[in-house]
Design goal:
By secondary structure, the chain is mainly beta. It has a domain at 164-290: Methylamine Dehydrogenase, Chain H, CATH 2.130.10.10. 0% of the residues lie in helices and 57% in strands. It has no helices and 28 strands. The strands form 7 sheets. Strands 1-2-3-4 form a 4-stranded antiparallel beta sheet, with no helix packed on it. Strands 5-6-7-8 form a 4-stranded antiparallel beta sheet, with no helix packed on it. The chain starts with a strand and ends with a strand. The mean pLDDT is 93.
Length: 290
């Protein structure tokens, strides 16, 4: 798997892979629901509406496709970027789509018209990840140039450049209240930043290889990081201390997320599996795409 996204209720998972397919899965049963067929390159980014009615996919050739999530039919396609799509995300009211690309830019799209309305330029390396603030006013981007940038969504203006990591950034996420931004890096560390004054709050140390993903819990009290060392770590947002380390995959992790109202964690790996965890124990192998 190269990418994954969940519906709001956590019951449906959308995955992208290097076989040119996006797949929809039932999280509770682990059963395959339907494929989304049509890309001519690896599916490297996915996003899904809260209801699951619409799915967005991005490919290695820069193409964006929009699908009916209920029957898998193609609704539209657009040549969004000239190079690989690394990430895509919807804002809270699903009126905007934010895409991040290997071409060193991010783009803002109007989902009602399918048109791009702002191109976010300034990074000197590929943009690996992107996120909207909860209120939709800011967009954040993480780049191989080892910086994160904050942008005003209304006009595409860069409002801050966050420096502190020593190697490329791989992932970022806003806290549910929008007060904090968490970044993950190939320097083996995560960092948490104050969105008001742009200062670092603390550094998350403990992984032994580069971080691939970082996310907040729904209540904002915890963070989870996924690493190519094959583990996921859960962190306390008050102190920055590590609460748990989840290990068991046979390969590097590509992401880890809190699901089911923060009661469980799902991890996805390059070993071709996604696993569900309850507490510190692996509950079940959710799916296998070997």
């Amino acid at each position: 798997m190269l990418a994954l996204a969940f519906t709001e209720d956590g019951q449906t998972l959308v995955s992208g892979a290097d076989d040119e397919l996006a797949m929809m899965w039932d999280v509770e049963t682990g059963e395959f629901i339907r494929p989304l067929v049509g890309h001519t390159d690896s599916v490297t980014a996915v996003a899904v509406t809260r209801s699951g009615n619409t799915v967005y996919t991005g490919a290695g050739n820069g193409e964006i496709r929009i699908w009916n999530g209920k029957d898998g039919t193609l609704k539209a396609s657009v040549n969004g970027h000239g190079r690989r799509l690394n990430a895509m995300v919807l804002n809270r009211d699903e009126s905007r789509l934010l895409t991040a690309s290997e071409d060193g830019t991010a783009a803002l799209w109007d989902t009602r018209t399918g048109r791009e309305f702002a191109r976010l330029k300034g990074h000197t390396g590929a943009v690996e990840d992107a996120a909207f603030s909860p209120d939709g006013r800011l967009a954040a981007t993480a780049s191989r140039d080892a910086t994160a940038r904050l942008w005003a969504v209304d006009d595409g203006r860069c409002v801050a450049v966050l420096t502190g990591h020593s190697r490329m950034l791989t992932s970022l996420a806003f806290s549910p209240d929008g007060a904090w931004l968490a970044t993950a890096s190939a320097d083996f560390h995560g960092m948490v930043w104050n969105v008001t004054n742009f200062r670092s709050r603390f550094i998350l140390e403990g992984h032994t290889s580069h971080l691939a993903g970082i996310h907040f819990s729904m209540d904002g009290r915890r963070l989870i990081t996924a690493s190519s060392d094959g583990t996921a770590a859960v962190w306390d947002m008050d102190t920055g201390t590590q609460l748990a380390m989840l290990s068991g995959h046979a390969g590097p992790l590509i992401d880890a997320l809190f699901v089911d109202h923060d009661t469980r964690v799902i991890t996805a790996s390059t070993d071709g599996t996604a696993c569900m965890w309850a507490g510190k124990r692996e509950e079940k192998e959710l799916l296998s795409v070997r």
